[in-house]
From TrEMBL:
GO terms for molecular function: metal ion binding; trehalose-phosphatase activity. GO terms for biological process: trehalose biosynthetic process. Keywords: Hydrolase, Magnesium, Metal-binding. It comes from Actinacidiphila reveromycinica. Signal peptide: none annotated. This is Trehalose 6-phosphate phosphatase. Removes the phosphate from trehalose 6-phosphate to produce free trehalose.
């Protein structure tokens, strides 16, 4: 997919968001998803790493802002490690909200605050291998253990990732419900995790804490739609906001593309956008 990279939002709301960010960067919050937005999608989730320019671009921009935050489904420490975000000059105030906002890492302390592991996850983790065998054979299926806080079933490396995803969605939903969990669908991944927290709740709370006067949110997947909805809601209440989609693969959900004010070409495009904003604020 080719994009004309002008960094001009296609909607009036998006243009207002960008104008507010550039006029008062000291009141702006830039919030970014990790996988697919800062880190290119790769077949093996353990091999994902941020785009080589991501930390540097964010470090150029962050000192101009009220706050920069990374909002990810990953455990926060994993995103910090895979992103190379620790001890970077310019990122002294970076916050990483992991597990969709249930967990928080602060660059200032270098520590993560993690809630107690939910009971249902322990039970699901034990039951999952046998359960998957019972619902069909999908060689290549991979279970990601997310530090006891969630488990994710990845279909990307099966022979038919779409068919496996669709075949497993309902049964995993039932398994999750039996253990008081919910299923979070993503790019060839079905994650079983506790209910009650999502990127929208997390972003809204963070913006309140930061006293934000504007927000830019960039994401690429279904889990980012809750953050999109939060920005749309805040815009209706008068807070300017810019929604950015990181796109480039056919698998980018249509709803993400349709609701974004600005589409950029994957993590490389996000890095160019961050650099562009830093240039304009320099
Ligand atoms: O909220 P995010 O930062 O976007 O994290 C969402 C999930 O990302 C990871 O999975 C995705 O990226 C993998 C690596 O590129 C890819 O192989 C997989 O198909 C994608 O779904 C991660 O493994 C999950 O734990 C995150 O919840």
């Amino acid at each position: 997919m080719a994009f004309a990279e002008t960094f001009t939002p296609r909607t009036p709301e998006g243009r207002d968001g960008l104008t507010a960010l550039l006029a008062h960067p000291e009141r702006a919050v830039v919030a970014l998803d990790f996988d697919g937005t800062l880190a290119p999608i790769v077949p093996d989730p353990e091999q994902a790493r941020a785009h080589p320019g991501a930390a540097a671009a964010l470090a150029r921009l962050a000192p101009h802002l009220a706050a920069a935050v990374i909002l990810t489904g990953r455990p926060a420490a994993v995103a910090v490690r895979y992103g190379g975000f620790a001890e970077v000059p310019g990122l002294e105030h970076l916050v990483v909200l992991g597990h969709y906002g249930a967990e928080r890492w602060d660059a200032r302390s270098g520590e993560a605050h993690t809630p107690a592991a939910p009971e249902g996850v322990t039970a699901v983790r034990a039951e999952l291998p046998g359960f998957l065998e019972s619902v069909g054979r999908w060689p290549g299926l991979w279970i990601e253990d997310k530090g006891g806080h969630a488990v994710a079933v990845h279909t990307r490396r099966t022979d038919d990732p779409d068919a496996a995803f669709e075949a497993l969605r309902a049964p995993l939903g039932e398994l999750a419900a039996r253990h008081g969990l919910v299923v979070e669908p993503g790019r060839y991944v079905l994650e079983l995790r506790p209910p009650g927290v999502d990127k929208g709740v997390a972003l809204t709370g963070f913006l309140r804490e930061a006293g934000a006067g504007s927000v830019l949110y960039a994401g690429d997947d279904l889990g980012d739609l809750a953050a999109y909805a939060a920005v749309e809601d805040l815009r209706a209440k008068g807070l300017p906001g810019l929604l950015v989609a990181s796109a480039g693969a056919e698998e980018t959900p249509q709803e993400v593309l349709a609701r974004a004010d600005l589409t950029v070409a994957g993590p490389a495009g996000v890095v160019r956008l961050l650099d562009h904003l830093a240039d304009r604020l320099a």
